[in-house]
Amino acid sequence: MLHRLRRSLRFANVLSLLALFVALGGTSYAAITITGKNVKNSSLTSSDIKNDSIKSSDIRNGSLLRKDFKAGELPAVGTGTPGTPGTPGTPGTPGTPGTGTALNGFATTTSASTAISLNAGEFNGGDRVAQLTLPDGDYILSSSVEVGSNSANSALVRCALRDSGQATSQGSTSTRALAVFSGTIALSGVSDGGLVDLVCVSDIGATARNRVITATRVAKLNP
Question: The whole model's pTM is what?
Fold first, then answer.
């Protein structure tokens, strides 16, 4: 019987049997899907990802931060909307009112020239070169007069600032010969109101001009 089987196994029969075996067994494989659970955290590197393989759809919206981009890749940020103005501060406390006293001024000025009296003695009303009448009150006085000689000799000129006929201050100056208005006499004093005058005398011929008296009213003069 074995002899008979050997005679029936020809090459064509063997090929037929092999083809049948392959057809019945076939070739099989398993398709495997890899998810994030199958990858260890921080195990993938840039060399494991194919260039240009990750697209916008693969990235979750809002997951990237500014530090994930290179410098200059993001557009410049525009100026924001101005904030709401702050609440105004509390007004400061008003200052203490001043304690100064209102002043009232009086003055007389005469620029025209006038002859100075020749008088070597006491002053009198005829020696007056300027005058000012003041209301009752306390005043600080100031006066000035320019003087000059109209003779070939120098002149000695004396002047006094008076309050109600009483001298409050006096002064003198020597003028050069034939020198027009070469000296100035300035005086100051106080008054409680009434007639204030400036009187001048000279030992030889002299002239006065720019005769000024000013009075500034104050709250109260010291006694």
Answer: 0.52
163, 192 in Cβ contact below 8 A?
A: yes
If one counts the domains in the chain, the total is: 1
Q: Give the CA-trace dihedral at 130, 133, 139, 142, to 10 degrees.
A: -10
Q: Which domain holds residue 160?
A: 105-218
137-146: burial string, b at 16+ Cβ within 10 Å, e else: bbbebbbbbb
pLDDT attached to residue 171: 94
Residue 113 lies in a domain: yes
Q: Is 163 inside any structural domain?
A: yes
DSSP 7-19: HH--HHHHHHHHH
CATH number at residue 115: 2.60.120.760
Alpha carbons 207 and 135: distance in angstroms, whole number: 30
What average pLDDT does the segment 21-43 reach? 58
In one-letter notation, the amino acid at residue 103 is L
The pair of structure tokens assigned to 199 is: 């009187």
In a domain, 110, yes or no: yes
Q: Note whether residue 62 is domain-resident.
A: no
SS3 category, 20 = helix
| Of 205, 206, 152, the residue nearest 184 (C-alpha) | 206
Class of residue 37 by CB neighbours under 10 A (exposed 0-12, middle 13-18, buried 19+): exposed
